Amino acid sequence: MPDGRHSDGPTEKCGVVGVSLDGRDAARPLYYALYALQHRGQESAGIVTHDGFQQHSHVEMGLVGDAFGEGDLEALKGPTGVGHVRYPTAGSVNSCCAQPFSVSFKSGSLGLSHNGNLVNTAELREELAASGHAFTSDGDTEVIAHDLARNLLEADLIRAVKRTMDRIHGSYSLTIAHDDTILGVRDPQGNRPLCIGELDDGYILASESAAIDVLDGDLIRDVRPGELVVLEEDGAGFDSYQLVEQDNTAHCFFEHVYFARPDSRIDGNLVYDVRRELGRKLWEESGVDSDVVLPVPDSGRAFASGYAEAAQDDGADVEFAEGLMKNRYVGRTFIMPTQDARERAVRLKLNPIRDVVEGRTVTVIDDSIVRGTTSTQLVKLLNDVGAEAVHMRIGAPEIVAPCYMGIDMASREELIAAGRDTDEIREDVGAESLSYLSIDAVAAALEESRADLCLGCVTGEYPYDIEGESTDRDIVRPDIEDPHAGVADD
Ligand code: SF4
């Protein structure tokens, strides 16, 4: 869980990276890049490199700083490699599912880093197992690795990737080391982010551009949905292959609202700017008179500054203040699974500044409400220190359904907004007033049409074919019985 995220927020999935350099070992740049992506996963970290002869791998449970020692980095020889930070979303919470997933096949060695979640893993696993593939984990990344390995026996690299893309269904941004060739693949709907950057002596693929920044590189562009990017082995350039075309994308809007770093650029937008714009739209849609606007730190900050600025532009006499102080030393709250523990975690983590709040009407701005535990506790805390009234404004629509694309959103039963109207939620939370941002405002801030966003968790209609759920578009599920379904030979 990213620093500053609160106990009942959605939990991020994974971060991926891949580099190809001109001679220099890739391990250290990969390590720094993983540090920059640490907010995307704290369960495990790993790097796989290739030195032209053999593959080297180091994968450990824990944070990046704990997973690698100096000796580990020294041992990861070679100028190409991929890395991964993981929060488990499919597969067990143990080292067998930590990534990159690495394996040697007749077709060469593979190291795979995956961000996202396939929705047809079970069928694929069954089909591959029936044709003799043995699995060592229950994660979906190994399924992709086996499928790709099989295709590499029968086709060249580009066609093999295309065949695998035609069989897997769901959300995936992949960095892949096939011997000393580094590949980046983004699913045809571009659900999870992936971008390409240029370094002094090579090229990098990463989940977020912040990982390029820390290496003093330049962001070139996002990997396009359905695109395969192949980094040249000597770091001299990259090739692009548009392997799958689809009419509509399904970008996860939550990347901008919550998951990604504010200093990252995703699908053309600086996340910080998007959050400020969402805050401005929140004022336009549901601004309320109050003495002071408080962000819920840290993720509510950009929303609250946009909201307060828009209010002041409209002539409102309102102050923007940091009235909630965060204790940065409280541990990761997802290890506190009970409701009581989560409530205590909120009290440990956030402390209101009495002088900012006492005797004043307060508008608290947060990015989202999942279970509602944090919001309820916050309103109580602010009332306890003398707030005259506590209004709550949320920079995203109501979360009414779970995510199947790799985000731990909690189950439907746990979501405070599932099947309830805003006034019922307001009553539960104990706020004077409560408003969420509309879906249209989110789409406008992202400069996307609704049809190009994944809105599954806020509408209950998904951009993929998920058993028992409805979809918001026409989808043809891949025919996994035929390994070469829909694939032309050249
Ligand atoms: S369901 Fe929500 S969190 Fe999951 S991918 Fe879609 S928008 Fe993102």
From TrEMBL:
Cofactor binding summary note: Binds 1 Mg(2+) ion per subunit.
Keyword set, alphabetical order: 4Fe-4S, Glutamine amidotransferase, Glycosyltransferase, Iron, Iron-sulfur, Magnesium, Metal-binding, Purine biosynthesis, Transferase
Catalyzed chemical reaction(s): 5-phospho-beta-D-ribosylamine + L-glutamate + diphosphate = 5-phospho-alpha-D-ribose 1-diphosphate + L-glutamine + H2O
The enzyme's E.C. designation: 2.4.2.14
MF annotations from Gene Ontology: 4 iron, 4 sulfur cluster binding; amidophosphoribosyltransferase activity; magnesium ion binding
Pathway involvement of the protein, from the record: Purine metabolism; IMP biosynthesis via de novo pathway; N(1)-(5-phospho-D-ribosyl)glycinamide from 5-phospho-alpha-D-ribose 1-diphosphate: step 1/2
Group of enzyme by EC: transferase
Residues at the catalytic site: C14
Region (Disordered): 470-490
Binding site for Mg(2+): S299, D366, D367
Biased composition (Basic and acidic residues): 470-484
All copies of domain Glutamine amidotransferase type-2, residue ranges: 14-234
Gene Ontology biological process terms in this record: 'de novo' IMP biosynthetic process; purine nucleobase biosynthetic process
Cofactor: Mg(2+); [4Fe-4S] cluster
Similarity field: In the C-terminal section; belongs to the purine/pyrimidine phosphoribosyltransferase family.
Function: Catalyzes the formation of phosphoribosylamine from phosphoribosylpyrophosphate (PRPP) and glutamine.
NCBIfam families the record matches: purF
UniProt protein name: Amidophosphoribosyltransferase
Lineage: Archaea, Methanobacteriati, Methanobacteriota, Stenosarchaea group, Halobacteria
